[in-house]
């Protein structure tokens, strides 16, 4: 069952090179009280901000897989190597990475175009998992 709101506002950082798709997720999740901010246009832009206050407040990360230069998979791997423990969601209109690739970076995959009920349920599950780990 889809819960319209979460107990606390969930904050998501999103790396997406297509502004219209980024805006779709920002607007769609905003209807459910989920804040998608900051949004980065490339993996490199996000990596430059890893110590920023905005990223320190994020509960989970969404990465498009097909990004210019560094892919979302590579970004996730680099962040895990740097010690990042928060949940990752990889998104793409292309086929999903293998289960082995996702397990290696402790990530889940969601297909584009977005099925918002599925996106919300995934966010709820990951946000609850993260709260239990604290």
Average predicted confidence as pLDDT: 91
Q: How are the strands of the biggest sheet laid out side by side?
A: 2-1-3-4-5
Number of domains: 1
Low-confidence stretches: 1-6
Describe this structure in words.
There is one protein chain. With 134 residues, the chain is of the alpha/beta class. It has a single domain, classed as Response regulator (Rossmann fold, 3-Layer(aba) Sandwich). It has 6 helices and 5 strands, in the order βαβααβαβαβα. A 5-stranded parallel beta sheet has the order 2-1-3-4-5, with helices on both faces. α1 (19-30) links the parallel β1 (11-15) and β2 (35-40).
Nutshell version of this structure?
This protein has 134 residues and is α/β, with parallel strands linked by helices. The protein is built from six helices and five strands; from the N terminus they run βαβααβαβαβα.
Present the secondary structure layout.
Elements: E1 11-15, H1 19-30, E2 35-40, H2 43-47, H3 53-56, E3 60-64, H4 72-81, E4 88-92, H5 99-104, E5 107-111, H6 116-133
Parallel strand pairs: 1-2, 1-3, 3-4, 4-5
Keywords:
single chain; about 130 residues; alpha/beta; Rossmann fold; five-stranded parallel β-sheet; disordered N terminus
